[in-house]
Known about the structure:
Elements: H1 3-19, H2 24-46, H3 51-71, E1 72-75, E2 79-85, E3 88-93, E4 96-99, E5 105-112, E6 116-126, E7 132-143, H4 146-151, H5 156-173, H6 177-182, H7 184-199, E8 204-215, H8 218-259, H9 262-277, H10 288-293, H11 296-308
Antiparallel strand pairs: 1-4, 2-3, 2-5, 6-7, 7-8
Helix pairs in contact: 2-3, 5-7
Amino acid sequence: MSPKSKKIKDIMMKNNAEDLHISGIAGLLFGVFMLIAVAGAAIFDSQNFSDTWIIVWVTVMTLVGIYMLFAFKVASQWDKAIVLRLGKFRSLSGPGPFWIIPIVDTIPGWIDHRVMVTPFAAEKTLTKDTVPVDVDAVLFWVVWDAEKAALEVEDYQVAIAWAAQTALREVIGQMTLADILVGRAKMDADLQKIIDERTTPWGVTVQSVEIRDIVIPQELEDAMSRQAQAERERQARVILGESEEQIAHSFAEASKAYRNNPTALHLRAMNMLFEGLKEKGALVIVPSSAVDTMNLGGLSGMVALGQNHLPEEE
């Protein structure tokens, strides 16, 4: 049995159990009248009353006790009892204690006025771009008119569950996968509107709909993951290119400062050699054009001569 069928079966069994509702107070009253019947019979017997009177007394007390058992009802604070008299709607009773006439009056159901939660799902439903998805959602609803809920639909809880499921399939079929993944709020609002239009004639209003989970095929999920990774790599390359462009502009601006200032250029060259030769064993490769332009020949010879005369470390 599927979870959906099991849920519907549980709802129907609950409704059937409520139809046989007998309050504990009614049972207590029945027990009290049975005790009165037994005590009265014992007193009548001690007073030498005839057996006919004793039988009449016990019968009357038993009938009154049975009447109390089936006539006295108690509805919870959140319940409304649907009372039919000879098959016709008589009234909504409750919350609290109320009376019915046994046999003449019947209570086919009890309407719960609390906010109810109904989970529903759509499995392997095709989106507008023909992608099969599994969607789980939760429906929050409340009965605002118990009379309509009892008289306009056979089982309003089961009807709401099916109405929600069919509405979910309709909405999925009208949206693309991308819209479903990024537009859950819009999907929730559309579902609430559609389901509420269907359930309002039943005396039920939908408070909210929330999408819990969206499951897509594993192959498509892997493809989307690769697409996202490629997009991030593309953005990284674009950022790197923009950085190189900014660096090139910075060098171009720096060259303008060195163009008419050979002393600054010479100092910069000395700093470059110093930074390159700080580490022992470092090798600095300088283009020949730079040696002539920046007068690095003599400077590099002096640095090499100085390194040859440095004392060796032990």
